[in-house]
Amino acid sequence: MLVVTWETDGFNNCVVLDGKPYVYARSEAGEFVLHARCSHRGGPLHLATFCPDSTRLVCPWHSRATSVTKALRAGIPAVRRGDRVTAVFDVPATVTAEVEYRPMSPDLAS
Ligand code: FES
């Protein structure tokens, strides 16, 4: 297990573990840590928008929709305190965590 803390917004709003980016996302159903790469072909889910009923995230590359509820259930354990989030990732503690910037969809950044 690896515990990482990073910023919810701004220049350090994304943590990258073994090349996999994660961001803190907000939805009507709740806030969660989102794997920011689409499972279809790696599209930028940090730029996803919500479908009209806000139940699914739509990838900007090929418009596949992902259930927000499913993302919340399969979520990465995390807690937000102010403008920082601390999450526990199921990876070896030896994995290097890099913090960087990802532009966020207005739908996810609130
Ligand atoms: S990469 Fe996301 S739908 Fe294709």
From TrEMBL:
SUPFAM superfamilies for the chain: ISP domain
Top-level taxon: Bacteria
Pfam families according to UniProt: Rieske
Domain Rieske residues, every copy: 1-62
Molecular-function GO terms, alphabetical: 2 iron, 2 sulfur cluster binding; metal ion binding; monooxygenase activity; oxidoreductase activity, acting on paired donors, with incorporation or reduction of molecular oxygen
PROSITE patterns named among the record's database cross-references: RIESKE
InterPro entries noted in UniProt: Rieske_2Fe-2S, Rieske_2Fe-2S_sf
Keywords for this protein: 2Fe-2S, Iron, Iron-sulfur, Metal-binding
Keyword Isomerase recorded: no
Protein name listed in UniProt: Rieske domain-containing protein
Naturally occurring in which organism (per UniProt): Kitasatospora kifunensis
